[in-house]
Sequence to fold (417 residues):
Amino acid sequence: MSPTIHRVDLITIAALLLVCSAMPAEGQYGPNPQNPTKPSFSDEVTVTATGIETEVDEAPTAVTVVTRDEMDDAQVDRVVDMLRRVPGLAVIGSGDGGKLTTVFTRGTGSNQTLVMLDGVRLNSAFFGGFDWSQISTAGLRQAEVVRGPYSALWGADAVGGVINLRPQRAVGGFNGRFFGEGGTNGWQRLEADLGWGSENFDIYASGYDRQSDGELDNSDFSSRQFLVTAGVSFGKRKSRLGVLAQNVETETGIPFAFPDDPTPDRRQQGESTLIAVPFTWHIAQKWTLEMIGSQIDTTFAFADPNDAWVTESTTDTTSTQARLASIHSLGNHTFSWGGEWRSDEVNDLSNLGPNLEAEKVEVTSFFAQDVWNPNGAVRLLLGVRWDDAEQWGSETSPRADLGWRFSDTFELRVGYG
Fold:
């Protein structure tokens, strides 16, 4: 039985803040009464496909951008519910709300789709995949889905494709939003967003709370997310130094191990904390330097006092990342090169003893890429990446993509990697 939903959607916070501000305010969500026209497909921009800002219809690969307007129109609160609509993706859930949910791209494994938050890798350092069950649409500007082999640009996790979540940035003074709904079975969902932006400074914060008692015994779940982006812009070309922070806490009950095996006391909890410092430096009109450093600490805990073997276990992971990319525009070519370093450390312990103790993997990478656009019809991308890890040695990954537009309604795209 589906829960009865009672909704309250209050946009008045933006209006109240507008009264207190001398600057014009504009809500980040919902239509702008002065400009009601939504962005067209040709206006959508992706950075995931080529590593640089590119209009979707100019990318030589298969790209889908899920915009904020589409999320609001669909009235969904989880990113994965939007991904179900994207061609080439298969979404598999292991139960009702709050249970493990994975995404498969073009038949590849769930650990072969790279998931990022504004360029920061989110894939688990323990099993390589990503649990989509708890990630909210709150505070997001868009989700970019790129299908095809992207190891040459983003690493071995991107064999099947890349999903990059882009957070909101505040513009035009104060803006805010509050949303709440409740229903039967203890269902409630609360969202709040608040931002302020000026010519040289912006900050945007969002909070999210979702919980339910579930329809079965021990099927309750809860999820809380807090996301903040802020930045300072400087120089005539608007270089930017920013900070990105996210905290996600989850808890869920597992009512069954098998259909005829109830587990009334089986629980799992998780927490993830991300902090990143992105820096974009427009050195010259045709030369941009991008750098980002980040760290993600994740804890996952399992407990079932009635289990015959494992009554409790805890997995702690720490992922530290640094990436540098230098981007140059040379006529019809956009050439980029750079390097990346990542360190993953895992501790896995159960009542049976330690499984992994401070197990660490370090990967050092270098990459180069050229995007050639000789005319409006043909786009060619060539790239190569070299990865080196002490545990398995080094690997070189080539990449080639060709996009050829024959007409406004027909385009051929071919990729290899």
About this structure: The helical segments are 12-20, 68-74, 79-83, 151-154. The longest helix spans residues 12-20. The longest strand covers residues 353-372. The CA atoms of residues 260 and 317 lie 34 Å apart.
